[in-house]
Amino acid sequence: MxxxxxxxxxxxxxxVLGQRWALPQVLVATLLSHVLGLAVAIxxxxxxxxxxxxxxxxxLVALGAGVALAVGFDTALRLLRARIADAAxxxxxxxxxxxxxxxxxxxxxxxxxxxxxxEALGALAEAxxxxxxxxxxxxxAAGDLPFVALYLCAIWLVAGPVVMVPILALATIAALAIGxxxxxxxxxxxxxxxxxxxRRLLGDLAAGAETLRAMAGGAALRGAIARLADEQFGRRAxxxxxxxxxxxxxxxxxxxxxVGVVLWGALLxxxxxxxxxxxxxxxxxxxxxxxxxxSVAQLAGQILAARARATPPAPAPALVAARDAPTRLEGxxxxxxAPDFALELRGVAWGAPGGAAPVxxxxxxxxxxxxxxxLTGPAGAxxxxxxxLIAGLEPPAEGRVLIDGADLGRHDPLRLGRHAGVVLDxxxxxxxxxxxxxxxxxxxIEGAALWRAAEIAGLGGLVGADPRGWDRxxxxxxxxLSAGQRRALGLARALAGAPGLLLLDDPTSDLDPRSEAALAxxxxxxxxxxxxxxxxxxxxxxxxxDRVVVLDQGRITADVAPETYLARAVAAEAGTPAPAFRTGRxxxxx
Length: 590
Prior knowledge:
alpha/beta, ABC transporter transmembrane region fold
């Protein structure tokens, strides 16, 4: 997070002090209220020391009427002060919002990346929620706090040395608030950091749901989110406990002070050095003196927490928490213990919900284990949809998709996904290090598997050239990489688990012919015996395949050997008559 956002974390005090129109009014109302509040103490002292010994009923009535009037005025002043504080509090929160929004706007103008903008906006929203009502409460507390001295002076005048008891209680409350303040701030900052990491992981899980589902990476991410949530809730419980310690400690100090005043004052009364009325007044004044201090201590904890949450931590890779996630897979029984990935589609049809016409019609296709198929055809022919059906990301409207002779739906998708590599178009590339983006929530992929995938995809030079190696950070969407490197990164992720099934949607669309040829050669050598279905228009990729299946208007119009398809394409470009497609030597009947 840019420094300007961090500096804006002191928004609350700046905004409160900026309400110059409200502060004098609050202070005046508070002054009159506290002066009138002394009337009750004076009334009690007068009744105990003067009225009761003399039996002066008339004086009692007069004093009662006077104190009732004082209490009435005090109540009216407090209500007026609350209304002024509420109005000023709204202005405080408005100024705080503008300050944070201004800092965010400046950071965006300075080049903040979109994911960082979302995180900053999330932090801003959380800070807004956490500081709700703090402005008015702070104005009232700021108005009350200076008058603690007034009550201490009054206690000293009526009870002399007994004033040391509330002074010690005030020191205890201050020490408690200061001592726990650092811990509260650290817990709040950790809570904010965990919240941001959880939001990033949720965002990654949503953005890459299909890729993760097809490659069994979602379980690890969900486990990481659950662990972060548990950690965050634990920190919040500890944070509330610390704040409550300050609150309850202040309450205990207030009660102990009142008891201490009574005990010390009683000894002075026994020694005839203090009257009973003065003792009662001192007890009441002690409660009034400690009330504002306790309120300020409670607010201090809330302010520290709000400030920590208003300052988001530096962006961290979203997938880092998934690195150590459990590798246990969940799901039902697995009918595919050792997958060969013999694929078969029988009369498959698919159409978008509410679509006028089906995208795929009566597709029947067989792919033998280890066979490589290139899917090609004009835009909108249904190539990507067919790939998604094989990956289990879409259910067919009609027909069946089988793997090793069993319906796809009967296989445990998590176990099946461990043996599959999928590249959708465009590839999903979350923020993280190269290691984390390629592993993509699959903690069992590391070491040699990473290097092998990187070399095949053509990323070995990128890893080796950077001193950080696999820890080189990658922005969300890999905006800091070239278009070709982004494609290679998605391909490396698909290859990382040495999959038995590779489903690739236009993996070389952003590569120049030389890079494409090199990638095709590396894929041909490095894919081993994997079954491959590749959506492509590129000759280099078709040449490493056994068959080219042509889709047009949702139907298979040809299933031929690559050389047959490429010969026809060359003839079409040259303007010479081209022979009709015939099933190639290695092709299967449709």
